[in-house]
UniProtKB/TrEMBL annotation:
Keywords: Glycosyltransferase, Membrane, Transferase, Transmembrane, Transmembrane helix. InterPro entries: DPM1-like, Glyco_trans_2-like, GtrA_DPMS_TM, Nucleotide-diphossugar_trans. The keyword Protease does not apply. It comes from the Bacteria. One of its GO terms (biological process) is polysaccharide biosynthetic process. One of its GO terms (cellular component) is membrane. The chain crosses the membrane at residues 240-262, 268-288, 300-320, 332-357. Residues 243-359 form the GtrA/DPMS transmembrane domain. GO terms for molecular function: dolichyl-phosphate beta-D-mannosyltransferase activity. It comes from Roseospira goensis. This is Dolichol-phosphate mannosyltransferase. The lineage of its organism: Bacteria, Pseudomonadati, Pseudomonadota, Alphaproteobacteria, Rhodospirillales. Signal peptide: none annotated.
Amino acid sequence: MPYDLAIIVPTLNERDNIEPLVALLDRTLAGERWQVLFVDDDSTDGTLDVLRRLARDRANVSVLHRVGRRGLSSACIEGMLATAAPYLAVMDADLQHDETLLPRMLTLLRDEDREIVVASRFAEGASAAGLASARREMVSRVGNFLANRITGAPLTDPLSGFFMLRRELLDTVVHDLSGTGFKILLDIFASSPRVPRYAELGFTFRERQAGESKLDSQVIWEFGMLLADKTLGRWIPVRFILFALVGLLGVGVHLLVLGVMLHLAGVVFLWSQATATVVAMTSNFALNNAFTYRDRRLRGLGFVWGLLSFYLVCAIGAVVNVEVADLVYRNGAHWALAGFVGAVVGSVWNFGVSAIVTWGP
Ligand code: GDD
Ligand code: MN
């Protein structure tokens, strides 16, 4: 049976929420031709068993099991691409989203010429009771403000994880979606060449019943990266900006170590300079690993190998730097310009090569 509406539900350890959710969908969507597609990132709590049992029993329940990949946004994107339904909804598995909105959302798309309908926790008549804490609500409001700088529309809840759209809208943006973090709705708006015709519906964000939230500092960090990518990323890759900032900090670390060893510890210059270089490279590696490549963070033995490869890359980078600066200088450039050009070329080398060698896939 061809389905009109596909509901994409990302799951990560939601075992006890699946059956109640499907029961609620059955009730709300009776009379519609709908399917639900769960995209599970290799849950470890038995979610997959529950999903497969359901999917074997019923034609309109399917499971996409992803291994070795993580992330709410990319799960939703892959789910939407795995069905041919003309209307696509995204909603959480944890029963925080009010499923009774779905029929109204569908009507707005089908009969009212909207391209996307957003369920909002902050629109008129809405309530964000389920945000659980004042701190969480605060984070959400600040996030909204920042997010609307790039959606180009005054959405009351640009970070909502509950919305429905037409497939045509997905098709126009899908090649530009960044797919990282939690912020898929924002990404859709930011990637659309014009503001889509949208509508908002207020709802009461319920409290999570079973399981726990996966929104952590990693997710907030990825949100920052997405914002930076959508604003600055057109000109310079965000990773390069972070890498350059870390490098700048490294110069400070270098000078600090050099000064302390030379003047406070009385070590000879050559040794002080050598130690400062190693300390600065090590701290650059650690900072890049923690921030610039947070999503590919190396740990344990991988950290050690990464550090060694980073030393090697930087050593070659230093040679490149000196050679290029020398070449520019000998061609009559001012010493400062020659030094600057050498440093920039060396940094670009370090960035480009370490991206592949040290943090590559
Ligand atoms: N497949 C997959 N992979 N699913 C995930 C992942 C992941 O890496 N991380 C979370 N999920 C699923 C959860 O199982 C749940 O169904 C849904 O995504 C939302 O995750 P929660 O951990 O419950 O998020 P939340 O309630 O804290 O965040 C909600 O509010 C945010 C804004 O404040 C969500 O609606 C977000 O989408 C929204 O941005
Ligand atoms: Mn939740």
